[in-house]
């Protein structure tokens, strides 16, 4: 197939964040056996990368929207950085986008391509409103705004990809599908290193609000149940926010996440907000970590009955003490190898691309 990916970020650093990880691996595997081009649209010029796995051509565009244009988008309940139909049409013509069987874009900035091409996928789309609280008037208004964005997107003639059933259910369209994230099981593996006694670990971007909320919450839970274990947090980001948490140790950014998280007795992941499948959890499972998780942390994962035998899934936080006392040891490596690889993730996309392309030919729109 001939596929164009249109992104508003660089997909070249796998561990930058969750979305970059998805597109890094998707393009890596899809480009093995398909004709793939990549168009990167950014607000500022960068040093161009000209080669990325088997991608045929990488194009760059610099488009910076004014405050006025962003506010107009907000009034229309569009994503603030959404390119207008006119701007999209210029790029459509410049790169002869009708030549592609499928155009796959991330975020919502390029959603107006649906006016010019019939085989469009908006990928890894979270229903952001589901992750938002409603404790203050400002939070309620923000949640309302994102719900409206999701409703507007649902009415566009394109396919919406989500990674969980929860996100899928939020979009009011028949043109949607679920494909769950993968994990690099060769990179994320167990290391034979000494264990730090009385330790939990959690990893992720320390500046990401969802992770911040989880870290503060886990710190409180451990205090409330009288657990004397320390919680070590691994990842890039500012550490000052956690300085006054006396049971939290900031490790920071490391060269080898898999080797680092293998050092701790337990991997603790108690999420309070957020949507989508947690890449961090898939990575910890692949590394054979002994995981303690709540139900929100496993959102979107398959084969839950099998999963319950592979991690410590808890309903009551007092169960944490029982797991430690009884030295319960589980690992989910086999579960990952059975259900979640990036190659399988990419293969599912090819199958979906083919169906979308075939249906567009039947309709005769392309």
Walkthrough of the structure:
- The protein is α/β, with parallel strands linked by helices.
- The chain is built from twelve helices and 13 strands.
- It has helices at about 20-35, 65-75, 85-95, 135-155, 165-170, 210-225, 255-260, 280-285, 305-310, 320-325, 335-340, 340-365, and strands at about 1-5, 35-40, 55-60, 100-105, 120-125, 160, 175-180, 195-205, 230-235, 250, 265-270, 290-295, 310-315.
- It has a seven-stranded parallel beta sheet.
- Strand 6 (about 160), helix 5 (about 165-170) and strand 7 (about 175-180) form a beta-alpha-beta unit.
- Helix 1 (about 20-35) packs across helix 12 (about 340-365).
- The mean pLDDT is about 90.
Rg calculated over all Cα atoms = 22 Å
User: What is the mean predicted local confidence, pLDDT?
Assistant: 92
Major β-sheet strand ordering? 3-2-1-4-5-6-7
| DSSP helical segment count | 12
What is the molecular shape?
globular
Name the helicity range: 25-40%
Structural class: alpha/beta
> Could you spell the SSE succession in H and E letters?
EHEEHHEEHEHEEHEEHEHEHEHHH
Please describe the biggest sheet, giving its number of strands, its sense, and whether it closes into a barrel. Answer: 7 strands, parallel
Please report the total strand number as a whole number: 13
Q: Roughly how many Å apart are the termini? A: 15 Å
């Amino acid at each position: 197939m001939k596929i164009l990916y249109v992104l508003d970020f660089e997909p070249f650093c796998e561990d930058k964040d969750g979305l970059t990880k998805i597109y890094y691996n998707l393009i890596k595997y899809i480009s093995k056996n398909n004709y793939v081009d990549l168009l990167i649209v950014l607000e500022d010029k960068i040093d161009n990368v000209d080669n990325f796995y088997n991608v045929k051509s990488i194009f760059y565009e610099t488009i910076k929207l004014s405050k006025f244009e962003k506010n107009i988008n907000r009034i229309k309940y569009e994503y603030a950085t959404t390119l207008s139909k006119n701007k999209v049409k210029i790029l459509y013509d410049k790169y002869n986008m009708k030549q592609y069987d499928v155009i796959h874009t991330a975020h919502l900035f390029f959603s107006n391509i649906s006016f010019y091409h019939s085989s469009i996928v908006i990928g890894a789309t979270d229903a952001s409103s589901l992750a938002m609280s409603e404790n203050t008037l400002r939070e309620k208004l923000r949640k309302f705004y994102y719900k409206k964005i999701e409703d507007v997107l649902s009415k566009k003639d394109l396919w919406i990809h989500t990674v969980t059933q929860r996100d899928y259910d939020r979009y009011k369209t028949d043109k949607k599908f679920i494909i769950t994230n993968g994990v690099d099981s060769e990179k994320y593996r167990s290391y034979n290193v000494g264990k730090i006694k009385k330790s939990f670990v959690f990893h992720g971007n320390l500046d990401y609000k969802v992770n911040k909320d989880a870290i503060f919450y886990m710190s409180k839970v451990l205090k409330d149940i009288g657990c004397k274990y320390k919680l070590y947090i691994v990842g890039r980001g500012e550490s000052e926010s956690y300085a006054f948490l006396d049971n939290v140790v900031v490790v920071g950014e490391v060269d080898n996440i898999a080797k680092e998280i293998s050092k701790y007795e337990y991997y603790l992941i108690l999420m309070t907000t957020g949507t989508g499948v947690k890449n961090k959890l898939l990575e910890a499972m692949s590394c054979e970590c002994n995981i303690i998780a709540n139900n929100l942390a496993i959102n979107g994962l398959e084969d839950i009955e099998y999963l319950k035998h592979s991690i410590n899934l808890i309903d009551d936080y007092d169960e944490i003490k029982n797991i430690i006392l009884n030295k319960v040891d589980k690992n989910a490596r086999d579960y990952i190898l059975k259900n979640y690889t990036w190659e399988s993730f990419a293969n599912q996309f090819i199958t979906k691309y083919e169906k979308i392309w075939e249906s567009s030919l039947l309709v005769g729109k392309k």
